[in-house]
Amino acid sequence: SFLPAMNHSPWEGVTIADFVMPFFLFIVGVALALAYKRVPDKLDATRKATLRALKLFCVGLVLQGGFFHGVRSLTFGVDITQIRLMGILQRIAIAYLVTALCQIWLKGDDDVDSGLDLIKRYRYQLLAGLLITITYMVLLYGTYVPDWEYRISGPGSTEKTFTVKCGVRGDSGPGCNAVGMIDRKILGIQHLYGRPVYARSQQCSIDSPQNGPLPPDAPSWCQAPFDPEGLLSSVMAIVTCLIGLQYGHIIVHFQVKCLLSIW
């Protein structure tokens, strides 16, 4: 992007573009509170929510896992051996499904006349959000990340192997964080996003925050695949959606006086 603020931060820091996904997930949560305000049949609602999430996940697989065969070709293909398994729509599908199930199954029958009553009615949803957050923090800072390797194609049919030295826990840098390690182990490095955002960082680009040639002393992880919508990072996407769900509850239970006074 010619405007750095409209592009994602290379790693540390935040830009306007970094707010788009969290705000969207928040609104998804708000919408779920309105859509599942009344659930006469929990099993049927669960079935519909699951099917909707699966459809969204599959659409994401095709859109972000496929590729056009050429600049002037309209043919579209998917390479199963290297298809990107996670992506924006896949993350939304996961957050949507978990949040929808929480709204369908984890709410009480208490009458809501105050803020405390609201907390009591949805206490299990709040507990679920807390447990998910704790799980994320434990995995992020407690998982041991060993040394690892990756290969990139060189000129012709040659391949070059890079070794990333880690052997740490709790690292938040691009090369040795638990987020990437979990994705590499479960999804496979060949199924991750091949143009990582940290390729625009000062360590990896002489034109940072834009893409550019590698500096002479660039770290070994600069060209390694990394998925910004990976498995562990999608765990906190669920929490963002749950926060939106709680805000939606406020709209549902306290809408009459507030909305009438506004209109």
TrEMBL record:
Domain of life, source organism: Eukaryota
Ranges that cross the membrane: 20-37, 49-68, 88-106, 126-144, 231-252
Keywords assigned: Membrane, Transmembrane, Transmembrane helix
Keyword set includes Transmembrane: yes
All residue ranges annotated as the Heparan-alpha-glucosaminide N-acetyltransferase catalytic domain in the record: 14-102
Keyword Membrane tagged: yes
Any one Pfam family match given in the protein's UniProt record, by short name: HGSNAT_cat
Protein name: Heparan-alpha-glucosaminide N-acetyltransferase catalytic domain-containing protein
